[in-house]
Amino acid sequence: MEENKREKKTEGKRGLWKAEEDLILKNYVETHGEGNWAKVSKLLGLKRGGKSCRLRWKNYLRPNIKRGAMSKEEEDLIIRMHNLLGNRWSLIAGRLPGRTDNEVKNYWNTHLNKKTSVLGKRKGKAIAESNHQSIPNHQNNTNTNIAIENQGGEEPIAPPPAELPMISSPKTTTDDEGPVGLLKVDGLTDNTWMERAVRCFDYDYDNNYEIETPLMMMNKNLNYAHIVFDEEPFTPCLDSFVLFEAFGTDSDLGKTQSFLP
DNA sequence: AAAAGTATCAACCGCATTTAC
DNA sequence: CGTAAATGCGGTTGATACTTT
């Protein structure tokens, strides 16, 4: 197993988990369930902190962990989701059954980052660090046709279809957040809807899972600057739908629609 | 064959958020 | 409601494996 690779030189150190430790932790969690990590190491006599136990379980010991090389499909999904979400490894991994955030992160950093220069200006850190100080200039943002760049010169991602999404039946909720709309993109497969979302919204995002469109940010004074993508659309079964919440009033939503491509 | 350089990835760290009290 | 503890996340490190010279 992986943990044996470096065992020789890390013996006696805290570093790599040994098979005995794994067995103890695995047995315990399978019996008592996850959680209370801080108590686990004490109870089990492991010289590991709670965080370390949690990490080991989450990344290696829990059932259905998938090991081995990423498939082309997985790699493709990582690239697409990274385009959309940035370095939100946990979210991305959540859409890859059996893969962990650490694994996805490592895979990106070692395999994909170097061969994929996708929409650099949109990457999480740069956007997050901007902390909303830099509102994209719509005049410079002529890219309703944002390029999804070729990955490693092999298989370029197909451009999104020419037709644009339609808002269907936006409705008002009773909560304080304002109206919730359902953006329906008919006839898309799960391989194309994300590019559609990128292209059609020309999005940026911040640390709070919000995705802002420059088109809307330039109209922030109208109080409908934020679109929040629900996580669910990332599941294949909902591939044709992009849920969003529009912060603002009903009338704002009406205006919002008019600004959508 | 061996030294040097590079790639990989498990584990750790610090910080932010959530939960418990 | 305020504080402390626990949890979760993303960035980074460093040991080892692999490749090149």
Question: How would you explain this protein's 3D organization?
Answer:
By secondary structure, the protein is an alpha+beta fold. The protein has 3 domains: 2-61, Arc Repressor Mutant, subunit A, CATH 1.10.10; 72-112, Orthogonal Bundle (Arc Repressor Mutant, subunit A); 131-259, no CATH class. It has helices at 7-10, 19-32, 37-44, 50-61, 72-85, 89-94, 101-112, 124-130, 193-201, 214-217, 250-259; strands at residues 166-171, 180-184, 204-205, 210-212, 226-229, 241-246. It has a 6-stranded antiparallel β-sheet. Helix 2 (19-32) crosses helix 4 (50-61), helix 3 packs across helix 4 (50-61) and helix 5 runs parallel beside helix 9 (193-201). The longest helix has 14 residues, at 19-32. The relative contact order is 0.10. Residues 1-13 and 118-261 have low confidence and may be disordered. The structure holds a DNA duplex (21 and 21 nucleotides).
